[in-house]
């Protein structure tokens, strides 16, 4: 009988610990928990100096405020020949979807390099190689600083130097309001969900909606994401059929 009671106690304690670690059994990883925390309570981002392609130096906060649109932000470096190329292809599809839906006055894309070697000329060449429409998709690079490192941590971006001047890093799509609040983090394989969230934010006043993010019904983004996801999938399929 004692061993049965001991087993039941162990199961009870283990279940309680698992409940806490998984945010009420809703997540299975620390990254998932972080993303849910951002969705429930959007976080005001730190500021950092930003080099803009062909436009000199500004700051991320000024860049976001001056533009006034909801931004889908991602991180890369121009010498990357693996993950960044896949991420660039996804971002191209989001750019096409924004243009096709007539959302370019409400939503835009911002790709930021974390590599201090990337300067204006590098960013311009990379933008050209990505066939970026500057009215929708712009590029920048961080100046090396403690502020840059703190901002990357807020975004959840891990950058590890690798041999031959390369980097190991993770990637995602980050939805940010014009007043500099990180509202959502979405996997690269769900670009429709990122666009749906950005579209909803833009239609509802951006920063004002971000303060109410914790009360959004979960199905709201799901339905919209399905629509935009299908559009992005159709765009991708059309490209594969187009011999040009």
Give a topology summary.
Layout: H1 2-21, H2 30-40, E1 43-44, E2 49-52, E3 56-59, H3 60-67, E4 70-76, H4 83-100, E5 107-113, H5 120-129, E6 137-142, H6 146-155, E7 159-161, E8 167-169, E9 173-176, E10 181-186, H7 191-203, H8 207-210, H9 218-241
Parallel strand pairs: 4-5, 5-6
Antiparallel strand pairs: 1-10, 2-3, 2-6, 4-9, 7-8, 9-10
Helix pairs in contact: 4-9, 7-9
What does this structure look like?
The protein is α+β, with helices and mostly antiparallel strands. 48% of the residues lie in helices and 19% in strands. The strands form two sheets. It has an eight-stranded mixed beta sheet with strand order 1-10-9-4-5-6-2-3, with helices on both faces. It has a two-stranded antiparallel ribbon with strand order 7-8. Helix 4 packs across helix 9 (218-241) and helix 7 packs across helix 9. The chain is globular, with a radius of gyration of 20 Å.
